Every structure is written in structure tokens, then in C-alpha cells.
Amino acid sequence: MKVKRYIGNDPQETMLKIKSELGSNAVILHSRKIKKPGIFGFMKKPLIEMVAAIEENKEKQEKDALRGRIGLSGTNAVHSEGNKIDLLQNQVGNIENLLNNVLNKIGYSQDDKEDSQETLYKKYHDLLVLNDIEPELADRILAIVRKQVSFAEGHEEAILKTIRIVVREYLETPETIGDSFEKNKVVVFVGPTGVGKTTTLAKLAAKLSITKGKRVGVITSDTYRIAAVEQLKIYSEILSIPIRIVYEPTEIAEAIEAFSDRDIILVDTAGRNHKNEEQLKEIKALLENIKDPEIFLVMSATTGNRDMASIVKYYQFIQSYKIIFTKLDEAVTVGNILNAKLQTGKKLSYITTGQSVPDDLEIAHPDKLANMIVGEIHE
Ligand SMILES: Nc1nc2c(ncn2[C@@H]2O[C@H](COP(=O)(O)OP(=O)(O)O)[C@@H](O)[C@H]2O)c(=O)[nH]1
Ligand SMILES: [Mg+2]
């Protein structure tokens, strides 16, 4: 008697290995589910181990029969077509019986594969939601993943990889200020108080003037706090960039005019209480007084989804803007970036990752963000 151990991803695969080596008369002595080795082994689907045996002479008979079926040699090779079909039917019947016995024995029903995939999809849905992605959006992502990942390759790696691709596609290619623009380009930063508008403006001013050699001018309309003006004045002095202060929305056109020698003019605004209607009128008036402004909505990645939704709603009067996300260094989860991206339909541009001017500023690359969103699933 020959006894051998076989391992496969599921009972069908293990049985196939046994059948191809020992033939359909093999007897299953023992079967069990085993865990894959490695760090993530505990997260993976168990493997199926089977110990099979066959009488040596039965093995020989099987091999002869097999040879006969493929017309190799021996007396079996002259089977008539009818005999061949009978033989085949018998064998299929044997295998079916054998397989059902084994499956029943180890409690692994035909639906188990689908069930284990369902468990995986549920797990990733929950983890996306845990990472602050809105449940409906997690549903949408996984619906696409289901269509992309075929049943045969429905294992964990394929699902995870596809989730990452879908998230990356949703995040889209970022749009930044870029290098090629007309002289006198005006860029305005809007957003709630304390998210990092002034700091981000200083980072960009430094990059544009030092790295790209542009002539930069800075205007601030944030005159509510003396400290706010002082903060920007200090940055301007360090960077040797001229600064102008506007006290009324109507003064902005004049300030821009005075900067006609500048390649780019960065406009800082006061932090807005996004629930205040008066302040809304003021920011509208300011923007109306600027010809073709490029607007950046600055939001913090530490903002929860409900607050974020209300901020986005507040600024929906602006037709065209790009999004900057700040404080990624402080955010525990970053799924809200994807929510905001899809809620607004606007392009992402930059992310900031700390207080350091100008270093902690990056382009919002979708690969990196998708890894931050999906990568956290591993932890
Ligand atoms: N941790 C962290 N802090 C930041 C970041 N960007 C800005 N800040 C800090 O957030 C605070 C408010 O920034 P500020 O630029 O004055 O915000 P504004 O009111 O929107 O103009 C300051 O203490 C900044 O140093 C960032 O990316 N990460
Ligand atoms: Mg400010």
C-alpha cells in the first residue's frame, strides 16, 4: 500500500492532485484544515490537507487504465468508444462519491468557498469603514472589486490589490499649481479656521520662489487677528516676498493690480466659521473681486466626516476649486480624504504632513494615499 500526504487550497484542488497521482481508487485516510505559515497566515484561508492511500496493484491497474484511455499501450488501448465512455462515467461517479464523502467528513460544503469569500469581503468592508470611509462608499468599492476579481482568484491578495486600485482610481491624478502659468496668476486659499491655510501658503510661497524662481507676492485679507497678519509678515520677511494687507473685499483688485510685476500672487483669507452666513457673504465678495482666481479649499485630515461634509457644503458656491489636505501627520485615519474627494468631485492637489515650512508639503499622489487608506488594513 502506498500512503501519501497532499495539500491544496481547497478540497477540490487536493482531490485533483490525489486523483492525478494515485488515480480514482485512492482512499482518503485522513483530512483536515491547516493554517498557512507566516505573519499573515492567521488571516489567510486554511489549506486542506489529505492523506491518501492506494493498494499498489490498484495503482498499477489505474495507471494501465489511464494509459489505455489516452491510447498509449496495452490491451486497454483497444477499448471501443462505448467502453471508453462507460469507463469514464464510472470514474467520474467514483470521484464524485469520494469527494462528497470527504467533504461531508471535514464539514466543508460546496458553498464554503463562496462563504469564505463573503467573509473576506465583509472583513474588508468593515476595515474600510473603520478607516472612516463612508459605508455606502465602501459598498461601492467592494461592488467594483467583486466584478474585477474572478471567483477563481478570489483570494485575499487579489481582493486587497483590487481595493487599492479602485481607491487609487477614485482619488484621481492630482492638480497642482504647476510650472507653466500666465504672469499675475492669483491663487486664493479658503477654508475653516486653524486648518493650516497660512502655513500651507508659506510652504508654497517658499517652493515657488526658492525652488522654481518665480516672483511671488502675498496678500492677506485675514485682519481679524493681529497675530494672523504678523504670522504672514514674518514668513514674507524670511522669504523676501512682498506682502499687502486688504481690509475690505473691494480693496483686493487694487492690491492685485499693485502686484502686476509678480508671476504669482497668493491670497490668504481669514478662517471662516462655516456656520456663519455673514462671513459667507464676505468670502463671496472677496472672490467676486478677483478675476479668474485659482482657488484651493484647505481642510484638515483630522476633521471627522460629518464636519467635513458640512464644510464642503458651505463652500459649494465655488464652482471650481482644488483640495489641499493638511495635518496628515496627526490623522489616525485618512478615509475621509476619499469621502471628500467623491463628495465634491473636485481634484486633490497637495497634502501637508507637519508644521515645518517649506518641507512638509507634498503633491497628493494617489498611490501614496491609497496605500495609506488601504495599507492600514494590515495593521
Ligand atoms: N501637525 C501639523 N500641524 C500643522 C500642519 N499645517 C499647519 N499646522 C499647524 O496648525 C496650526 C494652524 O495653522 P495656520 O496656518 O495658522 O492655520 P489657518 O488658521 O488655517 O491659517 C499652526 O500651529 C500650524 O503650525 C500640518 O500639516 N501638520
Ligand atoms: Mg491663517
UniProtKB/TrEMBL annotation:
Keyword match Nucleotide-binding: yes
Domain AAA+ ATPase: 183-348
Database matches in Gene3D superfamilies: Flagellar FlhF biosynthesis protein, N domain, P-loop containing nucleotide triphosphate hydrolases
Membrane topology: Peripheral membrane protein
Family matches, as Pfam families: SRP54 (PF00448)
Keywords: Bacterial flagellum biogenesis, Bacterial flagellum protein export, Cell membrane, Cell projection, Cilium, Flagellum, GTP-binding, Membrane, Nucleotide-binding, Protein transport, Transport
Main location: membrane
Matching InterPro entries: AAA+_ATPase, FlhF, FlhF__GTPase_dom, P-loop_NTPase, SRP54_GTPase_dom
Compartment list: Cell membrane
CDD domains to which the protein is assigned, alphabetical: FlhF
Domain SRP54-type proteins GTP-binding, residue spans: 184-375
GO biological process: bacterial-type flagellum organization; protein transport; SRP-dependent cotranslational protein targeting to membrane
Any Gene Ontology CC annotation: plasma membrane
Task performed by this protein: Necessary for flagellar biosynthesis. May be involved in translocation of the flagellum.
Family: Belongs to the GTP-binding SRP family.
Protein name from the UniProt record: Flagellar biosynthesis protein FlhF
Organism for this UniProt entry: Geosporobacter ferrireducens
